[in-house]
Each structure stands twice: as structure tokens, then as C-alpha cells.
Amino acid sequence: MTRPAAAALAVLPLLLVPPAFAATSRAPFPLPAPLRDRPAVAPAATPASAASASADGGQQQDAQDISNQVFGPRIKVDEAYGAYQRGAYLTALALALPRAQMNDAAAQTLIGEIYGNGLGVAEDDGKAAAWFNIASRHGDMLAAFELAMLYQNGRGVPQDGKRAAELFTQAANSGYMPAKYNLALLYMDGLYVPPNMMKAAGLMKEAADSGLAEAQYDYGTMLMEGGGVVPDAKQGAHEIGLAAAAGNIAAQVDYATILYLGQGAPRDLAGAVRWYKQAADAGNAVAQNRYAKLLAVGEGVDLDLEQAAMWRALARRQGLSDPVLDKLLVSIPSDELAKAEELARFWPSTPPTNVAEASRPAPPSTGHTLPTPAEQVPPESSATAASAAATPAPSQDP
Prior knowledge:
Helix content: 55-70%
Number of strands: 0
Order of helices and strands: HHHHHHHHHHHHHHHHHHHH
CATH class of the domain at 26-41 and 63-195: Mainly Alpha
Radius of gyration: 32 Å
Strand content: under 5%
Number of helices: 20
Shape: globular
Distance between the termini: 25 Å
Mean pLDDT: 79
CATH topology of the domain at 26-41 and 63-195: Serine Threonine Protein Phosphatase 5, Tetratricopeptide repeat
CATH architecture of the domain at 26-41 and 63-195: Alpha Horseshoe
């Protein structure tokens, strides 16, 4: 059964952050972004450019020849990236090397990606850092970002937060949004740059407006809390909702809580349940714990102690224990608890049939043996049938 909305207030304390476990955790730096999209071919000539080519034919052809001599034919770069995208990494490396030796920053970055990720070659952070360093000096913003990540983590180069901050700034000034996000985090925490919440909020907003889910989540949190910006719970909830829809698990947990409490958005119990369930399915322990509580009290969802116990077991495996939830499940029958533990053991798969059968408690012994179908004899008369029907059958409770 589903409880009425009025009962929601009784459960509000249950959705507070469980003891000794953070609701969400922000990774200081996201994983390196994928390669930027690059055109497969040079843009087609417009009528105007074709007319100009006709008028200046000889001069433009000379310029093209000079360009090809310095940089090589344009199609070679595209072939290298095409091979990379198809997974032909050694071919991509072979095609990119001649371009890289002619100071093509995009090709140098591509080679850094190949060595940094060990694609077709042995992973070598030192070589990756060397190529990213050359490409960043030639103005490639992705190379500057990747090199900053290496300095931040001390991979292939000595760990140097100050150098990382300089490179993040370089990439951010070139318009690379993941760099703006990382630089915002540095200003928020005052790491290697002077603390500046207003500057952090400005950079975070730019990254959020570009659609970066991590930035949407963090900027939404800043709006909710008034960190470096004027508090705006409605816009904050909107930003966190965008991040949740983009697949950010921490944002899904927080957005579910926003909808549950009606803070910054209209209260939506059904929506809260859906987001908690989605994050729980993704393996988030806090979401598993909170979804279990809702199941245990029938809040916004049908009451189901067995499922609640399963989600509790999954959260416990990740170190989240909650005495409040334990009290809610104190009355669960032992057979349901055993089944819930078995479901959690095989989650997200279902237990094999033979295992599920083996885990069921054996039926109580009655001292009687049921006859086999071959031994059962049809009654010879209606009186015999009536007498047989009046005789209690041996207990068959599971």
C-alpha cells in the first residue's frame, strides 16, 4: 500500500544524512575529457570563396602549396584522428608522427593521448607529458589541460600543484570548459591560487552553462548554499536537476532529496522515489539506504520489507550502517530476511533457481508421508469422498 502524502512528515528525519557517511562526495578533478571533435574534411568552398579563388587563382594555389610543404596535406591529420576513432591506434600514431614533427599541435596532442592511455603501445606517462608539453606550448588547450592533470596527480612529471594551476588557467583562458571547472575548484579551496569564491562561481557557471554535468551539480550547490553567489534555491535545484538528468549520481541523490523536501522545487514524492531508485540501481550507498527506508515505511512506494532489507544489505556492504533503518526492519520475518540477504548477494543479477530453492527453510516435519500420485486412489463413492475431504491434510506450509 502507498501512504498518504500527510504521512511524509513522519519520515523526514529518516532521510537525513546517515551517521558516519557523507551523502555525496565531489571528486577534485574529473577524468580527462575525450578528444575534441575535429572535422573529417576541410570545409567546402562557398560560391564567394570559389570566385575569389578564380580571380586570385595563382596566388592562392601558391599559398596552398606552401601550406602543404609546411604542414603536409590537411587530410593527413584527419586520417590520423579517423584511425584513432576506429581503434587503429598504431596507424593513428604513424600518421600523426610526421605532422607532429612539423609542429602540428593537434597531432602532438593525439600522440600524447595514445601514450597516456596505453592505446596500442605500452602506457608511458613520461612520453605523454612530453608531447602534451610541446603541444601546449603550441597553443593546444586540450594538451594544456591533460598536462595539468598529470602535474596535479604526479604522473609522468613531478607533482606540482602550482604548475597544474598555471596550465588549467591557460586552458581555461582558451575556452576549454573542463579546465574552467577545475580552476573553479582550485579557487573554491584556495589551492595554489588565492581563495576567491566569486571567481570560482563565475568559472563554475560558465562550465555549467556549457552542459558539463559536474559543473551543473557544483554550481547548483553553490546557488543553494549561497557560495560566491546570491542564494537562489530555485535555480540551484534546476542546475542540480540538469546534472541528475545527465547521469551524475551524486546529483541524483541530492535532487531526490530536494524533491522529497520541496526545497527549491515543488514537493514531488514520486519523483524523489524515482531518483533515489535510479541512484540506488547505480550502486550509490546513500541512495540504497534512503530507498530502503521508503520501502520499509511505505512512503511514496508500496511497503516491502524484503526489498528494504535487500537494499539495506547492499548499503552495508559499502560501509553504511544505519540504526534507524535497523529499527524499521526489526519485525521482518526470518524467511524474508534470508531471501533479502540472498538477493543482495547476487545483486544486480537474480539468484539461480537451485540456489533460491536451497535457501528456503525446510517444511516442518509432521511424521506423515504424503502419498505419491501413483499411490493416490480415487474415492469409490461420494461418502468416501466426503470423508476424505473432512480429513485434514498434512501441513504443507513453506
